Amino acid sequence: MELKYEQRAKTLTLTLPAEIDHHSAKPVREETDRWIAKLKPESVVIDFSGVKFMDSSGIGLILGRYNKVAPYGGRVVVECADRRTLQLLRLAGVQKLVEIKSATM
Questions:
Q1: What 8-state DSSP symbol labels residue 18?
Q2: How far is it, in rounded angstroms, from Cα 97 to Cα 18?
Q3: 48 lies in which domain range?
Q4: pTM of the prediction?
Q5: Residue 43's domain is classified under what CATH number?
Q6: Total structural domains within the chain
Q7: Which of 21, 42, 66, 82 is 20 to 30 A distant from 57 in Cα terms?
Q8: Residue 1: pLDDT above 70?
């Protein structure tokens, strides 16, 4: 699976690739930041449905995008994360800043 972006109304949805690590996160951050700067979305939805591996770079990816949209009232929503990813996000306290939607929550 490759990185995909979709805009609907005031929502930017980012579908992540299968691996989010130090090497793959940088281009995702850069491209997402370009979209955010251009669109100023009310919501940035990060879809983890295709992610098979994520290290701490994924947490940085989420929190960095939160820092980009929060100053103008935007929000970040994490969707479709698997059980292992959800556990990592909970341990890091990500749910205190972003909404996490998942059937396994």
A1: S
A2: 24
A3: 4-101
A4: 0.91
A5: 3.30.750.24
A6: 1
A7: 42
A8: no
